[in-house]
Amino acid sequence: MTHKVTIAELRKMGVKDLLGEIVLKRLEVAKMRLGITMQKEKDTGKYRTEKKQLARMLTVLNEKNTSPRTP
């Protein structure tokens, strides 16, 4: 995912799609963190933004998993 996804778009996603995006975002954040540690990555603001986006994704996933289901 190259663009910032809004909360509304995340809530429309299915759980499987959301899980797939979370895995990709975690990998991206880990690579950025490593790059910053090794002083190859200069844009720490982008790292912070990506971490926040990952947190949003995890929040929406948690909402989907804990919401009461109606029969």
Unreliable stretches:
none
Shape: elongated
Overall SS class: mainly alpha
Could you give the order of the helices and strands? HHH
Beta-strand content bin: under 5%
- Give the proportion of residues in helices: over 70%
Number of strands: 0
Mean pLDDT: 89
The gyration radius over C-alpha positions equals 14 Å
> How many distinct helices?
3
Keywords:
71 residues; mainly alpha; elongated
Account of the protein in words:
With 71 residues, the chain is mainly α. Helix content is 73%, strand content 0%. Helix 2 (15-37) packs antiparallel against helix 3 (44-66). The longest helix has 23 residues, at 15-37. The radius of gyration is 14 Å and the shape is elongated. The N and C termini lie far apart (34 Å).
Layout of helices and strands, plus pairs?
Layout lengths: L6 H6 L2 H23 L6 H23 L5
Quick gist of this model?
This protein is mainly α and 71 residues long. The protein is built from three helices and no strands.
